[in-house]
Amino acid sequence: IANGYMLMVCNSLGSNSLEHDHIDKLASQKVDAIIQIGGKVDELVSDEQYVEMINSIANKMPILITGKLDGADCYQVNIDEGQAMEIVLEYLIQNGHQEIALVGGRADVKSTMDKRFRYRQIMRKYGLTIREEYIISGKTYDIEGGYDAMKEWMSNDFPMPSAIIAINDFTAVGIMRFLKEHGLSIPKDVSIASFDNTYMTEGCEPNLTSVGYDYKAFGECLIKTAIAAIHKEEPPRTQLIKSKLYVRESCRKF
Q1: Three-state SS across 112-160?
Q2: What is the pLDDT of residues 174-223, one digit of tens each?
Q3: Fold of 16-79+213-242
Q4: Which of 4, 67, 209, 245 lies 20 to 30 Å from 200 when distance is taken between CA atoms?
């Protein structure tokens, strides 16, 4: 509004067909620009038909996405998932941890796979062993997903890592809940860190070390890029937003 534009918000509620309908409707209403957050652009493998639809609209108006869409003619503004993983993993390594697990997330979600890729790179950089059993998927990204992922993993009787990086704060809370129920102390027996830096970090015991995304910078970048594209000022096609680690009580130093 401050720049003379009105914001219209559409929620697809996780429905691909509703997402498609929303984008079609916005295009037919001849809005000045479309910002697509989540949904199909979060998928690891881009849907060709979806890309074709986006490109047909991008010929008429700027489209910005916060994900990945191979072959799409649109602007991208993303959280730098690699840098986010780097700061938390290097923090743990510098505090003496060598056996570090990565828990949660699905293999079909780009942000999760970006984190896993960077995890492997950094472990190799420091000469640490990458144990495949320490890269643990979850079915959901909520507390139950973390609890269930840890429950299934521990049923295999693998050796406990010294630290666990959860895919997000909610997953971390589920992991912590399961570990406590089974007599493990955090951070004495195992350190826990995660991503998102939500309200959950200070609502659990101990308070959770977490990577915080700069959503203010993220939102400002999206809006400024959209306005620049509307005015044909040729903003950068791809931009990454950096994150910060918030250290609390859930990690120990050796």
Answers
A1: HHHHHHHHHHHHHHCCCCCCHHHEECCCCCCHHHHHHHHHHHHCCCCCC
A2: 999 999 999 999 999 999 999 999 999 998 999 999 999 988 999 999 99
A3: Rossmann fold (3.40.50)
A4: 67
